[in-house]
Amino acid sequence: MQIKLIAVGKTDDSSLKELISTYSKRLSHYCNFSFEIIPDLKKTKNMDESTQKGKEGELILKHVNTSDILMLLDEKGKSFTSEEFSEEIQKKLNTGMKQLIFVIGGPYGFSPEVYQRANQKIALSKMTFSHQMVRLFFTEQLYRAFTILKNEPYHHR
In whole angstroms, what is the distance from residue 101 CA to residue 3 CA? Predict the structure, then answer.
């Protein structure tokens, strides 16, 4: 199964980029993982929140096929422990679907169309993190999930 992480907006912090790259490489031992960036919208100063979410939503949905499982990283989503998240990943792998897509939205979240298309919403925490940090935390948790499924020692360090 292909697992893809889509994020709106680039990461400027080179330290974060390096850490995300480290976990992305580690993930390649377990799955076909890719990380795609949807560029920030231009000229958003005169754009209201709803319009911006709508335009970002259109760009997100262009990356999603009808057969894909779409999971949104959303503060109102379901929370998991690391073990529960690994079980959720295993359930998705067992479906035989070709592609599992996780999405980190823009600064205002997701459009109604993206919510409607989503199969599930996941919360990383009840706390609020920057969208840049969420990329790192999620990539690390996905790697951790695979090490749990393979009964490898990473989770217990």
Answer: 6
Query: How many folded domains does the chain comprise?
Result: 1
Tell whether 1 is in a known binding site. Answer: no
Contact, 122 vs 80, CB < 8 A? yes
* Threshold 0.90, pTM exceeds: yes
What are the pLDDT digits (tens) for 108-127? 899 999 999 999 999 999 88
Query: Is 93 labelled a binding residue?
Result: no
| Orientation of helix 131-149 relative to helix 14-27, angle to 10° | 20
6 contacts 63 by C-beta, under 8 angstroms: yes
DSSP code at position 42 = S
The verdict on whether residue 124 carries a ligand-binding annotation is: yes
User: Is 105 annotated to bind ligand?
Assistant: yes
Instruction: For residue 70, give the nearest of 107, 111, 40, 29 by alpha carbon.
Output: 111
149 annotated as belonging to a binding site for a ligand:
no
- Does the annotation list 142 as a binding residue? no
pLDDT tens-digit readout, 17-27: 999 999 999 99
CATH of the domain at 117: 3.40.1280.10
Is 126 known as a binding-site position?
A: yes
Task: For residue 132, give its domain range.
Answer: 2-156
